[in-house]
Structure formats: structure tokens, C-alpha cells
Amino acid sequence: MTAQLIDGKARAAALRAEIAEKTRGAARAPGLAVVLIGDDPASAVYVRSKERATEQAGMRSFAHRLPTATTQADLLALIAALNINDAVDGILVQLPLPAHIDESAVLRAVDPSKDVDGFHPISAGLLATGQAGFVPCTPLGCLMLLKETRGDLSGLDALVIGRSNIVGKPMAQLLLREHCTVTIAHSRTPDLPDRARRADIIVAAVGRSNFVRGNWVKPGATIIDVGINRVIGADGASKLVGDVAFDEALPHAVAITPVPGGVGPMTIAVLLHNTLLAYQRRNGS
Ligand code: NDP
94 an active-site residue? Predict the structure, then answer.
């Protein structure tokens, strides 16, 4: 057996095309505001690609690039202005924030009806209690890939490795909502390989290359590799890999996401999906 590759790039392109089609039919262009503080190069790249994707979907992009020295009060004032700006349907504050700014205060300041990143405690609470809100983009993208590949997930044994608020916890909530039996593993979890060998679904969100080994994978399991790790390959060139020892897992898994080209492209597509949803909810459409 060799695993099917789950083509996140193609799925994301299809989702973006669907969103662009719906946006064309909207009474006005949905708007996404992205706030970037400081000059972290990786964050700048993410923000540029979010802006480009927003425009390609026919939406309005409002980018706010502020210097590292921006005070928390100034940032909160900008968010308050975006909250009451009717042209803005979604607000995203690019993380991480500089150390002098309280991240949780900033995330709480975003109007939950515009919280397209799904990081507001109200969004987390709505997800945990099974109510409609905004689901963080990466785990929702993972779920879309899983459902497309495996169909009904009901009754499956799922292992989520990682418990961050951005990926691990919301991923576990989504799988629970799909009636999986969910284990959340983290750095204090004993016997991780044995737990993994029981799982029909493994979602790896750790941030360590070659973390999930081939002999951890139950035959026929589906693997979603969220990790993004930069390593130096055998040829001396730098490359991106996930958390899973990909070549080792291939003969055991039934399906696996590659890195790059798996989960990554879904994240931005789901951000556009959430922005359209925010527009539709705010306009009762
Ligand atoms: P965090 O660093 O916030 O969380 C990592 C998690 O891994 C923690 O819960 C940690 O446990 C757990 N962990 C660390 N070491 C071990 C171990 N030895 N055994 C078991 N669990 C362990 O990372 P994120 O959740 O933000 O991101 C995870 C990965 O996903 C990163 O590589 C990131 O770059 C990538 N990512 C990719 C995205 C995409 O679009 N494709 C989007 C977001 C993230 P503990 O809580 O105990 O410390």
C-alpha cells in the first residue's frame, strides 16, 4: 500500500474559486482588515499573501502596517475603529505581537462578529459548545481535507498531537463534533507511539520534523501534517518539511497531506471562507 496524497493546493484553489463566485454575486465586496505590527519577515510574507488572496477573491483588503513601537492603546483604538467600520467584515491581527502588547487583550477587543481568525474567547466557547461562530482557519481546513478524503468520520479514533489554541484545541473540538473519539497529546503525554498506533486519524501540530515515525502509523490511518519546519536537506539546500517522517509513513497510511502543498494552502482559503461568512451573517444573507 502507498498512501494517497491529499492535495490541499487543489482543494484550496477550488474553495477560493467557489468563494470568488459567491463574492461576485454579493451586493458589495466583503472586506478583510489585516493588522501587522513590527517587521517580522515571516509575518510580512503571510500578510502579503493574505492581501493578494483577498483581492483575487474579489474582496476588499484593508492592510494596516504599524511600527514595532506601537502602543497597546493605539492598537486597541485601531481595532475599535475597524469594529465600527461597515466596509470591514473580518478583522485579523497577525500574530505574534511584540512583547509589550498583551495578546489576549487584543484578541478580546475584536468584535466577535468580525473574528474571522476564530481566536476570540467567544469564538472558542461557541465551538466548544457546538454553536455557530468562527472556527480557526488551519483546523477548519484540516477538517475539510479529512472529510473529503474519508467521508463520515463518525466513530473513528483520532489523535491530535499539540494543544495550542490556534491548532490543537480547536482541531480536537471539530473532530469531537464529527463524533470521533479524540485524544489530545502534548509534551507530557506518555506512550505517544502506542496511542498513535490505535488512531485512525493522526493530526500532527507539533513543530518538530520527523516527529511522527512510520512505525507509529496504524495501517490504513489518515494523516494530516500541520507542521511547518525548515530543515537543511541532503543536498545542502533549505526546505520545508512537516512533523511526520513522510517517506516512512507512506507505506502504512491510506492518505497523507504533503508539506508543502497540504494543510498550508487551506489556511488562507478558509480565511476567505470565514470572511465571506462574516459578510453574509452581518448582512443577513
Ligand atoms: P505550538 O508551539 O503553539 O504548539 C506545539 C504543541 O506541540 C504544544 O501543545 C506542545 O505541547 C506540543 N509538543 C511539543 N513537543 C512535544 C512532544 N515531544 N510530544 C508531544 N507534543 C509535543 O505550535 P502551533 O500549534 O502554533 O503550531 C504547530 C505547528 O504547526 C508548527 O510547526 C507551526 O508552524 C505549524 N502551523 C502551520 C499552519 C499552517 O497553515 N499549515 C498554521 C499554524 C501552525 P505543550 O503544550 O505541552 O508544550
Answer: yes
The β-bridge partners of 202 are 159, 223
Q: What is the pTM of this model?
A: 0.97
Find the largest Cα–Cα distance for the chain.
Answer: 57
CA of 275 to the centre of ligand 1 (A): 25
In three-state secondary structure terms, 62 is: strand
Residue in the block written with cell 472556527: 135
Residue 255 host element (H or E): strand 255-256
Distance 100 CA to ligand 1 centre (A): 23
Q: Parallel, antiparallel, or unpaired: how do β-strands 238-241 and 229-232 relate? A: antiparallel
Residue 273 corresponds to which amino acid? H
Tell me the C-alpha distance between 159 and 97, whole Å. 30
Task: Give the bridge partners for 60, in sequence order.
Answer: 31
DSSP per residue over 117-130, as a string?
T--SHHHHHHHHTT
List the grid coordinates of 150.
Answer: 474519508
Per-residue pLDDT of the chain (285 residues; tens, 9 = 90+): 799 999 999 999 999 999 999 999 999 999 999 999 999 999 999 999 999 999 999 999 999 999 999 999 999 999 999 999 999 999 999 999 999 999 999 999 999 999 999 999 999 999 999 999 999 999 999 999 999 999 999 999 999 999 999 999 999 999 999 999 999 999 999 999 999 999 999 999 999 999 999 999 999 999 999 999 999 988 999 999 999 999 999 999 999 999 999 999 999 999 999 999 999 999 987
Residue of 135, 145, 187 to mutate, ligand 1, most atoms within 8 A of C-beta: 187
| Atom from ligand 1 closest to the CA of residue 168 | 25
CA of 60 to the centre of ligand 1 (A): 32
**String of DSSP letters for 47-78:** HHHHHHHHHHTT-EEEEEEE-TT--HHHHHHH
